[in-house]
Each structure stands twice: as structure tokens, then as C-alpha cells.
């Protein structure tokens, strides 16, 4: 049984007119979010001290200058393909001997694998009447750093021979964003770093494709999952960004309620304009980076407000998904982007999060 | 006759003396009925299936009996691969009739999914292929081959034979079925005229039989699942959602690399014969000798991590000139362990299997994997001290050298927390891990500098993974501080556990290691074991402690002498005074206690510094009200050694069983102790006390 409580925008408006100075003291209390952030910051500190990379202090900004930057051309239609669809996110270790020149071979090999799987009856729900075809293609308009290393798109289509109209239906689309180099002699050249993979389609095909890729490129691929610390960052960073053209969606935070009968989740949705006002008051307009203290302030103010009205401590619950005007993200690794202009900043954050977990030797070479 | 048990029935069939005639053979029909009943009710165990299939295929009994037996082979859970391999070997002898052979193949098809492993079946592909010539078996053999075919089984000569067969018997659906899967792998070689509609190639002839098998399997599986009690967990919910399909096996199975250009090059790619110059598949290497003979034509594996499963192939990792294989392995290991270990929830069999393999691998290469250092450090921050404890401790023993402050913060601190709050057995495990770490650091990271040579020692180039940086100066300080840290842990542990024997043993191992580091590894002596430990062992209630601590003092003495001799003309160095004084103090106090019966006699020579608790007045000891404390801990009367004195006296002639007598014959008492493996005391006395007699 599910029941959610939502905050009306009227209440939010009313509360936001109360002095914001009460909230801006920015003192750290032991909420679970802060504990997680402390631990994560401590981890970063220790890790950086150990292995001698550039140190990051508590309160440091989120942007790192080390990871590759994604640039997209928003006007292209292909970037728009990403928007308004729910993607599942996977992360991969560096791929070995992936070359952009061999895309045709990969397509053929994967097609064979898919057909064999269908014939063997592994594919549940598909009889042997179906044929599959896999196509790798370069995804234009998605440059990765200035050297133009591009992304690769894989689309798997299946069609049933019984139906006379031979329109193949797309059952899986997969997008690899990463640096694609030509395989060269040096070690760093043989590996392609392809941290983020976005997929959309049937799970069965995803499994087969992932298994094929793990075998072909000697990597390991796992589903991305976001901790609530990451989700808190995301909602704080992007809550105030309203895309101009369309009417913005409301900011939503979904908490999962622990072990209570009858209540599974708690959804908090806030009018985006009110959220923007809060965001503007919290964020220092001059700096281009977002600080951890700002994240903390933002969340604490929301929690305090909620407590005043409903006497529920939001800090005791875990965030399971967040929605902002530009993107919706859930902790199981699902994402839906709404705004074309902000695609690159969202993807940049994903890349940052994944690259953070790589071994440091690899991080330095990126 | 009543119903037989299945075991008796099986026994009837295996007994070489059973009558094999069919007519009028009542025991035979009873046995058959019993097996049939059991099979259709509950299914047969894998062992029974192996035995019965062997009996049936050998055709010892008549054909009808054998066929009925094969029809009864309904597996309960799985079928062992042995059974199938033996059946196929019987088929090769051509002893069973062709109907029986066909029936056996049909049975294999029905239980194909239940066979526990198929490695040997794949190896027998060529043999099975041979059976297509037999007309009765051909459809079933083609079906079996259809299921077994992998890319490397497709050979030109096999395609030719199939086409020949087709021209002989006409276009048959089963031949087309097999050709279609060949076509899948090499579309340019096989051309097949196929009608527009996809046909069903292999008819299911044994639907009733299959249904019985399914029913029995379902029943067996339902029984096996235990009733689980939902215990609500107090642990904080992990951030990672549970997978609906958890991976059963993390480490991939071995598969040789497929040449990338295969798909594009049209005709030459397929192997036309078993040529000697062709590349050798890794799956065919089973022993080290095979590896040696074929090392020049091995094909590298697709996923390097699969090598973790095969110890004899791990030599490959040691031989590669560029570090490509090891880099691939590092990245894969790091990513997988990051996901499964650090972000995972609770304990997991697949992860345990992977960790087992990783530990075996590090033992094989006798060093650690650098990326695992990173993983261990991250994992220790979120570790609960219990999951995979033995694996984590073993991986810690292989950590790379790092400054002591980092070592303490990342490794020793979490270990200390576990140490202080756990039972004595965990304490021992942690201590053992740290001792191994110390040994590995001393043996591998510290290279004794040669005072005669002028060149600097070469950096370590024999490492499997990236060459280590020059860590000499770092190594010495870390090792010395690690010794001091382990010392403190021992002190803490002994106090907490009140001299538990296990902990005492590991403490003594630590002391023995610390006292022989110089002789074994050339680590310079810069500190001595703390007084607390020495005296706790001297006054312990356990004979092992007394003896071993005497041995430790002797080792220290030897180490010091060796070091002094090596320094030679360079003379005394700083810090040696302290070591000398400490060791002298220990020696004199132990001599006083054990031999001269003058324990706690500080007042006799106030100038000599005694270590024992820096007592300043005789009253302090008198207040403990221990009677005769001077002699209470001597060799004869020490609480730990008293039993040995008594056993020594029992061996003496009757008139002389007194302590005074024992005192006179202390030399013999020492020999007596030595026979009972308490060599330390004897060695100590002979090293330090000049005998007057």
C-alpha cells in the first residue's frame, strides 16, 4: 500500500516568505545525509592523501578539472534523441581493443550472437520466428573533449517474419559515451575509457548484449546505482535551473519509508519557482561551482520546513529518487532528461561519479 | 514378493552373477518394477543413473530389458557428465543394438539441460559427429550436435560430409537444422536454400517422456526449497538495490580469443584440417607440460579474469613482456570488486569464490596486486569485521609498502578496532595477519644494502605488476614502527584475555620474529621487545612461554653480536646503548629469577638497573604476601616448571627425591626439560651462565 503526502505550493510560498536568515546559519548537524557526506569526504581525503593525487577538502567544489568534458551541440536532432526517454545507466571498466574502425565487425558478431541466443531458446518470449539485427554507429554531435572523440550508438532491432510488413521494431538502444581512440601500441591506447552507458529497451536483450560486450572487450559492466548522497547533490545543484521554453516540472523528492505498515514512499513536490527562490538564496551567484555547504543548507531548509508542517523527520529516511526541472533520477540507475540544453552537464556529472571510483592510475591518465 | 528397495534393485543389475535371461526371471522383473516405480515417483539420483545407464548400454541384459531400463532413467536433480560420456563410449563399441543406441541418444537429448557440465561433451564433438552415418540415429545425433555446436566446431570437412549425407538421403529437416547453425557462424561458407518460413527442424518425438521428467523435476525442486524465516534485518539498508538476477558466477569461464578479422575475410578463415601450426586453444591445456610445449602458439583468452580459475595457466601472466594482460586483469578486478564487495550487501557465495581465487593467485605470484590495495583500503572503511574476514586478512598481508602514517590510518586502525572488540580467536587471526605483513615487508620490500658496493641498489624489476618505486628509506621506518605497533597490540591483548594460551603463542611468535629479523632478512636492529611482554612471559603459568622467551633473549643476543661484528670498525652507533642496556637488564633479571633464586633482589646492587617494575622498596614486594618470593620462581619451583621438576624427581632413585637433590643436579634437570621440547631454558642457561663444574 502506498500513500504519499505532497506539499502544496501555497504552503511552500507561505513558508518561503518567513525570514530565510534562520536557515542560512549552515551549521552541520548529524543528519544521515551529512554523515554520509562526512564519510565520503573523509574517504576522498584519505584516498587522496594516500595515493598522492590532488587533495580535495571538505566544502570543495564539485567540478573537477581532471575528467574529460563532454560537449554537445544542442541544436542537433540527435542530442534531442536522448531527451524525454527513460534511460538505464550502466558503468563499465575500460574496454580493451575497442576500435571505432571495426564497428561493422562488431555489428556482425553481435548479430550472430543474438540469433544464436534466440535459436537456443534463451530469449524468453520470443519464438524462433524473430530475427534480430544489431547495428553499431557513431553518434554524431557528441564530442568528448576537443579531440573529437565520439560516442557510439548500438541499436538492436527485431522483426517478426510472420508479419508481412517488414518493419523492424527497436528493442534495444544503447549509447556508449567515451573516448574512442584508434588502438595503438601503448597500453593507454589499447584501452578505451567508456564510463557511461545508457540503455533503453528489453532487459533480455540488454543482458545478452552486456554479456557479449564483457566477453568481447574484457571489461566488467554493472548497473549504476546512486547513493542518496549523490541524489542530494543532484537535486540541490539542479533544482534552481529552469529551462526557458517549456513550463518547468516541479521539483520532486521521493523518500522511502523504513518498515512502517501501510506507508512505502513519501513524495515531496515543490513548485519550481519557489524552489528557484530558495536556490538563489542559498547559492552564491558569482561562483560557477556548487559547494557542499550549499547542498547541506538547501536540504536542511527543506527538511525543517517539512518538519514544521508534518512533524516528520525527513533526514531519517532515504532518498530513492529525485526530480528536477531538467532531469529525473532514481537510485536504481534510471534517468530521464527533459531539457536539451542541459544534457551535457547531466552526463558530465555521471562521468565524474563513475570516474571517481576508478583506480587512481587510470584517473590520472584520463 | 514384496516391493524391493531401489538400492537392492540397482545391486541386482550390477551383480555379475545375476541371471540375465528375460523369460521367467522373477527377480529381474521385480528389480525393474522397483526402479520404474521409484523413478516415476521421485526420480533417481545421479549415481544411480550413472550405474544403470552403464548397465543398460553394455547390453548385458537383453535388448528389451535394456530399453526399459533406459526409459526409467528419470533424473531427480542433475545428471553427471560421467554417465553421458560412458554411454557414448558404449555406443562406439557398437555392442548395443541400433534401436538401443537411438534410445540412448534420445535420452541424452531429453536430459541435456540437466547435465552438470558439458566440457567433456564438447571435447567429444568429433566422435559424436561420426554417428551421423547411422540412419536410425541420424536425426537425434543431428539434434544433439545442434545443441552442442560452438564456433570452433564448425569445420570444412564436417560441412562437406553433411552435404554428402544430404545428397545420399535427400534433403532432411534435421540435416538442414544442423547446417543452419553452421551457417550462422560462417554464413559465407554454407549456402542453404531455405524456404521463406522458418521451419521446425527437430521434431519432438518424446513428449510423454519429457513430460514425466518435467513432473519429477518439479516435484524434486519443490521439496528441496526450505522454508525460510523472514528475519527483519537491523542493518542499514544498503544503497544498492538487490538484483533480480544476481550473478551466480563472477569469474568468467575460459574462452580463447577469436580473431577479429574472421568475420570479414571470406574463405580462408575456417580451418580446413587439424593443422599443427594452427593456434592452440587455451581450453586444451591441462598441465604445465602442455603449456611449456605449446607456449609459442597459444591464443590469448578473451577475458583475462578467466585465468583465475586455472592455476596452471597463470604462468601466462608472468611471461608476457608488455603488461597488457596484467593491466586488463587489474581493471577487471578493480571494477568487479568495487561493485560486489564495497557496494554489495552481506556475504555472497560468488564473491567468496572470487576472493578465494584472488588469494590463491596472490600466493602464486607471491606478491600483491596493486589495485587490490586500493580496494582493501576502501573496503575497510565500510567493513563490519566479519564478512570475508579470512580473505581480507590474507589480502592485507600482501599490501604494498606505504608510509606508516597511512598504514596506520587505513589498515591498522580498523584492525585495531576489530582486535579490541572481538574474541581471542579473532585476535589471534589479526595478530597472525600482521606478523605475515611484517614478514612480507621485511622479505620483499627491504633489500639489504651492500656496504661494499658503491652503486645504489636496483629498483625491483621482477614484479608481475608495475615496477615498484624505490621504497628503501620508507621501508625501514615503516617496518620499525610496525614492530612497535604489534608490540602494543600484544600488550593490550594479553591484558584483555588474561594470558590466554593461543594469544600467548602468537605473542611469542611475534617476539621470535622480531628477534630474528636481522638474521633472516638483514633488517637492522633498532628496538627490542617491550619489558611488559618479556616479564609477562617469564612469570607466566605456561611452560611454553618461559621456554620460548628465554630463546628470544638468546636470539636477540646473537642478532646484536652479528650486527656489532658487521659494523666492525665503524664502532658503536647511537641507539645501541639503549638496546644493550635493555637486553642486559632482561638477561640479568631472568638469570636471577631462574637460576640464582634471587628474583626481585634490586637492593643488592642499586647501580644495576633492573627492569622489573622499577620497584624502589622491599615493602612493595612483601606486601604481595607471596612467600619466599626470591626462590618462588626459580627453575625448580616456578609454577610453570614445577610439574617437570616433579617428573624429573620421579625418575630418580627413591632416596633422593627432594628438592635439595634436584638443586644439586640442575644440569640433569635441564636435559630433562630439553627432552620435553623446552629447549629455550637450556639454551639460555648455557649461553649466559658460565658453569663452574
UniProtKB/TrEMBL annotation, chain A:
<dbReference type="InterPro" id="IPR025204">
    <property type="entry name" value="CENP-L"/>
</dbReference>
<protein>
    <recommendedName>
        <fullName>Centromere protein L</fullName>
    </recommendedName>
</protein>
<keyword id="KW-0158">Chromosome</keyword>
<dbReference type="Pfam" id="PF13092">
    <property type="entry name" value="CENP-L"/>
</dbReference>
<keyword id="KW-0539">Nucleus</keyword>
<keyword id="KW-0137">Centromere</keyword>
<comment type="similarity">
    <text>Belongs to the CENP-L/IML3 family.</text>
</comment>
TrEMBL record, chain B:
<keyword id="KW-0158">Chromosome</keyword>
<dbReference type="Pfam" id="PF07778">
    <property type="entry name" value="CENP-I"/>
</dbReference>
<keyword id="KW-0539">Nucleus</keyword>
<keyword id="KW-0137">Centromere</keyword>
<dbReference type="InterPro" id="IPR016024">
    <property type="entry name" value="ARM-type_fold"/>
</dbReference>
<dbReference type="InterPro" id="IPR012485">
    <property type="entry name" value="CENP-I"/>
</dbReference>
<comment type="similarity">
    <text>Belongs to the CENP-I/CTF3 family.</text>
</comment>
<protein>
    <submittedName>
        <fullName>Centromere protein I-like isoform X1</fullName>
    </submittedName>
</protein>
Amino acid at each position: 500500500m502506498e500513500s504519499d503526502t505532497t506539499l502544496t505550493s501555497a504552503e511552500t510560498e507561505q513558508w518561503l516568505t518567513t525570514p530565510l536568515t534562520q536557515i542560512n546559519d549552515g551549521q552541520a548537524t548529524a543528519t544521515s545525509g551529512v554523515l554520509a557526506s562526512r564519510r565520503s569526504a573523509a574517504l576522498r581525503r584519505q584516498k587522496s592523501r594516500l595515493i598522492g593525487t590532488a587533495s580535495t577538502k571538505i566544502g570543495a567544489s564539485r567540478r573537477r578539472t581532471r575528467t574529460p568534458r563532454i560537449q554537445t551541440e544542442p541544436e542537433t536532432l540527435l542530442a534531442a534523441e536522448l531527451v524525454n526517454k527513460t534511460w538505464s545507466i550502466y558503468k563499465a571498466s575500460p574496454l580493451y581493443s575497442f576500435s571505432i574502425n571495426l564497428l561493422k565487425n562488431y555489428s556482425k558478431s553481435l548479430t550472430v550472437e543474438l540469433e544464436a541466443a534466440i535459436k537456443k531458446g534463451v530469449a524468453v518470449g520470443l519464438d524462433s520466428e524473430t530475427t534480430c539485427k544489431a547495428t553499431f554507429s557513431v553518434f554524431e554531435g557528441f564530442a568528448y573533449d576537443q579531440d573529437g572523440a565520439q560516442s557510439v550508438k548500438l541499436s538492436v532491432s527485431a522483426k517478426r517474419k510472420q508479419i508481412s510488413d517488414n518493419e523492424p521494431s527497436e528493442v534495444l538502444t544503447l549509447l556508449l559515451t567515451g573516448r574512442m581512440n584508434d588502438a595503438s601500441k601503448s597500453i593507454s591506447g589499447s584501452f578505451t575509457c567508456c564510463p557511461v552507458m545508457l540503455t533503453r529497451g528489453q532487459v533480455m536483450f540488454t543482458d545478452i548484449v552486456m554479456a557479449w560486450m564483457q566477453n568481447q572487450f574484457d571489461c566488467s559492466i554493472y548497473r549504476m546505482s546512486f547513493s542518496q548522497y549523490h541524489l542530494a547533490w543532484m537535486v540541490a545543484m539542479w533544482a534552481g535551473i529552469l529551462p526557458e521554453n517549456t513550463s518547468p516540472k516541479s521539483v520532486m523528492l521521493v523518500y522511502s519509508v523504513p518498515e512502517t505498515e501501510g506507508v512505502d514512499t513519501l513524495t515531496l513536490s515543490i513548485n519550481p519557482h519557489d524552489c528557484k527562490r530558495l536556490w538563489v538564496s542559498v547559492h552564491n551567484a558569482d561562483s560557477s561551482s556548487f559547494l557542499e555547504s550549499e547542498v547541506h543548507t538547501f536540504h536542511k531548509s527543506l527538511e525543517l520546513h517539512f518538519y514544521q508542517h508534518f512533524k516528520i523527520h525527513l533526514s531519517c529516511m532515504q532518498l530513492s529518487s529525485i526530480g528536477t526541472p531538467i532531469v529525473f533520477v532514481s537510485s536504481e540507475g534510471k534517468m530521464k532528461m527533459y531539457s536539451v540544453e542541459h544534457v551535457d552537464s547531466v552526463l558530465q556529472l555521471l562521468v565524474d561519479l563513475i570516474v571517481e571510483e576508478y583506480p587512481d592510475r587510470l584517473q590520472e591518465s584520463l | 514378493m514384496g516391493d524391493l528397495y531401489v538400492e537392492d534393485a540397482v545391486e541386482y543389475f550390477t551383480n555379475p552373477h545375476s541371471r540375465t535371461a528375460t523369460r521367467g526371471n522373477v527377480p529381474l522383473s521385480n528389480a525393474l518394477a522397483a526402479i520404474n516405480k521409484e523413478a516415476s515417483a521421485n526420480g533417481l539420483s545421479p549415481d544411480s543413473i550413472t550405474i544403470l545407464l552403464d548397465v543398460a548400454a553394455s547390453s548385458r541384459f537383453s535388448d528389451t530389458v535394456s530399453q526399459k531400463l533406459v526409459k526409467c532413467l528419470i533424473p531427480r536433480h542433475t545428471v553427471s557428465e560421467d554417465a553421458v560420456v560412458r554411454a557414448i563410449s558404449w555406443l562406439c563399441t557398437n555392442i548395443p543394438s541400433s534401436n538401443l543406441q537411438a534410445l540412448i541418444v534420445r535420452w541424452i537429448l531429453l536430459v541435456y539441460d540437466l547435465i552438470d557440465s558439458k566440457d567433456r561433451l564438447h571435447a567429444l564433438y568429433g566422435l559424436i559427429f561420426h554417428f551421423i552415418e547411422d540412419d536410425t540415429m541420424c536425426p537425434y545425433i543431428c539434434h544433439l550436435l545442434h545443441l552442442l555446436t560452438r564456433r570452433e566446431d564448425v569445420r570444412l570437412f564436417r560441412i562437406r560430409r553433411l552435404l554428402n549425407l544430404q545428397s545420399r538421403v535427400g534433403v532432411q529437416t534435421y540435416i538442414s537444422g544442423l547446417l543452419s547453425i553452421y551457417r550462422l557462424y560462417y554464413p559465407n561458407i554454407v549456402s542453404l536454400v531455405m524456404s521463406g518460413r522458418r521451419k521446425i527442424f527437430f521434431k519432438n518425438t518424446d513428449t510423454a517422456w519429457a513430460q514425466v521428467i518435467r513432473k519429477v523435476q518439479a516435484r524434486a525442486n519443490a521439496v528441496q526449497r526450505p522454508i525460510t524465516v523472514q528475519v527483519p534485518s537491523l542493518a542499514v539498508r544498503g544503497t544498492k538495490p538487490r538484483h533480480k538476477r544476481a550473478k551466480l558466477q563472477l569469474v568468467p569461464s575460459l574462452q580463447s580469443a577469436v580473431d577479429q578479422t574472421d568475420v570479414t575475410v571470406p574463405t580462408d578463415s575456417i580451418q580446413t584440417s587439424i593443422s599443427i601450426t594452427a593456434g592452440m586453444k587455451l581450453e586444451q591445456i591441462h598441465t604445465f607440460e602442455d603449456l611449456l610445449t605449446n607456449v609459442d602458439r597459444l591464443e590469448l583468452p578473451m577475458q583475462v579474469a578467466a585465468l583465475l580459475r586455472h592455476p596452471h595457466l597463470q604462468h601466462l601472466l608472468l611471461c608476457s613482456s608488455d603488461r597488457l594482460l596484467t593491466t586488463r586483469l587489474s581493471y577487471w578486478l578493480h571494477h568487479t570488486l568495487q561493485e560486489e564487495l564495497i557496494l554489495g550487501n552481506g556475504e555472497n557465495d560468488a564473491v567468496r569464490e572470487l576472493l578465494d581465487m584472488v588469494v590463491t593467485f596472490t600466493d602464486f605470484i607471491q606478491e600483491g596486486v596493486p589495485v587490490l590495495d586500493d580496494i582493501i583500503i576502501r573496503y575497510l572503511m565500510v567493513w563490519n569485521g566479519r564478512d570475508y574476514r579470512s580473505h581480507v586478512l590474507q589480502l592485507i598481508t600482501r599490501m604494498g609498502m606505504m608510509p606508516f602514517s597511512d598504514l596506520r590510518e587505513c589498515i591498522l586502525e580498523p584492525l585495531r578496532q576489530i582486535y579490541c572488540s572481538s574474541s581471542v580467536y579473532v585476535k589471534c587471526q589479526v595478530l597472525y595477519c600482521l606478523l605475515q605483513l611484517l614478514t612480507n615487508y621485511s622479505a620483499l620490500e627491504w633489500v639489504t644494502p651492500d656496504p661494499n658496493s658503491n652503486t645504489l641498489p636496483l629498483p625491483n624489476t621482477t614484479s608481475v605488476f608495475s615496477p615498484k618505486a624505490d621504497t628503501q628509506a620508507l621501508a625501514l621506518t615503516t617496518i620499525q614502527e610496525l614492530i612497535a605497533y604489534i608490540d602494543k597490540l600484544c600488550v593490550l591483548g594479553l591484558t584483555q584475555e588474561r594470558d590466554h594460551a593461543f594469544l600467548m603463542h602468537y605473542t611469542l611468535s611475534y617476539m621470535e620474529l622480531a628477534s630474528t629479523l636481522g638474521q633472516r632478512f638483514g633488517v637492522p636492529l633498532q628496538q627490542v621487545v617491550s619489558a611488559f611482554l618479556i616479564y609477562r612471559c617469564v612469570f607466566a603459568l605456561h611452560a611454553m612461554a618461559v621456554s620460548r622467551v628465554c630463546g628470544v633473549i638468546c636470539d636477540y643476543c646473537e642478532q646484536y653480536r652479528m650486527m656489532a661484528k658487521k659494523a666492525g670498525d665503524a664502532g658503536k652507533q647511537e641507539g645501541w646503548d639503549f638496546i644493550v642496556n635493555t637486553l642486559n637488564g632482561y638477561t640479568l633479571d631472568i638469570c636471577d629469577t631462574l637460576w640464582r633464586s634471587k628474583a626481585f633482589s634490586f637492593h643488592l646492587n642499586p647501580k644495576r638497573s633492573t627492569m622489573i617494575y622499577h620497584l624502589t622498596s622491599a615493602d612493595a614486594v612483601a606486601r604481595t604476601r607471596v612467600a619466599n618470593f626470591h626462590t618462588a620462581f626459580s627453575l625448580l619451583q616456578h609454577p610453570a616448571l614445577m610439574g617437570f621438576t616433579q617428573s624429573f624427581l620421579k625418575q630418580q632413585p627413591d632416596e633422593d627425591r627432594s628438592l635439595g637433590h634436584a638443586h644439586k643436579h640442575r644440569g640433569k634437570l635441564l636435559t630433562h626439560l630439553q627432552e620435553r621440547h623446552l629447549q629455550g631454558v637450556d639454551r639460555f642457561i648455557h649461553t649466559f651462565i658460565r658453569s663452574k663444574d
